[in-house]
Amino acid sequence: MPEVITTKPARRQPHKPEKPKKRNLWEHLEKLRWHLIRSLTVITLFSILAFVNRHFIFDTLLLSPRNAGFPTNVFLCNIGKLLDVESLCFNTHALKIINVSMSGQFLTHLYISFIAGAIAAFPYVLFEIWRYVAGVFRIRTTKAAFLPVLGGTLLFIAGVLFSYFLIVPLTVNFLGTYHVSSDVQNSITLSSYIGTISSLVLGVGIVFELPVVMYILARQGLVTPKFLREKRKYTIVILLTLSAIITPPDIISQIMVCLPLLLLYEISIFVASLATGKFQKAAD
Questions:
Q1: Residue ranges making up the domain that contains 164
Q2: Phi, psi of 238 (to 5 degrees)
Q3: Which of 95, 106, 213, 225 has its CA 20 to 30 A from that of 84?
Q4: Model confidence, pTM
């Protein structure tokens, strides 16, 4: 009988998923450019809205903290009367704001309109930033995108309100009434007053993003909760120094400013623990 030759079918190689193509530097820059364009477009729209509502922006918001009837000033003065601390009753005489430049008021109007537009558009800008960061680190989960954007928005709003209702009145009182000599009187320029308030409000709002930054860094393994706990004592000294600089020279005001900042640091440690623990694994 003729010999029958049998051949075994070729074994199929297991299918290997294709690795995502890495983008080069120019592709990343091009993607970043469109994120920036969309963010600037939204900021511009809100800035235009703020520009046409200058009476509300200036009279109701920006110039109010210098008056004795500002809610925070009234509240602190009542506490001062109960504790017999006269230094908490301040801004009893509204600061006189002057303009010394021909184009000063118009340029200040443009500047504040842009700052107000940036603050109003911050949630969308944060969303665009997270979309870019998620693309760079290839973060695909919905929860991982939702939590930083929502948390960052709420923290920014909390920072803006905290600065506007507490730090700004304290700073206006301290810097506006500070004298090196009785022969030197303060006449605060519009640009100086507006620049101080806008930098405080926007700066503190950004500082309040610390837990979100720690979430991202901890997720990527760049910081750990242990590291943050070990640096706690140095952080306390830094925050106490910062509080002493931006508040009047009394211990009550310094504590009122320092406590929320310390709480913010503790929240950052907790968020870093979530990002590196079982809760983060469940989210992924």
A1: 24-90+101-169
A2: -65, -45
A3: 95
A4: 0.76
Token digits for 214? 């720690």
Interacting residues of 280 by C-beta distance below 8 A, sequence separation 6+ = 219, 274
Q: What is the pLDDT of residues 30-64, one digit of tens each?
A: 778 888 899 999 999 999 999 999 999 999 999 98
CB 100 within 8 A of CB 76: no
**Does residue 278 lie in a domain region?**
no
Q: Which two tokens stand for residue 130?
A: 């997270």
198 in a domain, yes or no?
no
- What element of type H or E holds 65? none
Distance (Å, whole) CA 6 – CA 8: 7
204-244 pLDDT, tens digit each: 888 888 888 888 788 777 788 888 888 888 888 887 887 77
228 assigned to some structural domain: no
- Could you tell me how far CA 146 lies from the centroid of its own chain? 17
